[in-house]
Write a structure and sequence with these properties.
The protein is mostly helical and 87 residues long. It contains 5 helices and no strands.
Length: 87
Amino acid sequence: MKKVFFIFALLASVCVSSLAFAGADDAKWVAKCIADNKDEKVSIEVITKYCTCMNNKMDDNETLSITAWEKTHPTERAACDKESGWK
């Protein structure tokens, strides 16, 4: 199990590091979102696209996590679901 988590964490960090345009804070929030969704039955690529999309829709001064913010922003969530191919 630790090996699976390590591989997941490594994939997530590679995906997050590919967000060259994003700041360190953005990468932190996207990584947290990816970790929050690790048990979902979609690929890591879809999760990463979704989390990046949601992060891009959030204000830079937002203090909520992406997971918390998405609950109060259904329009943005639906758009990112579609953009990422989640649903």
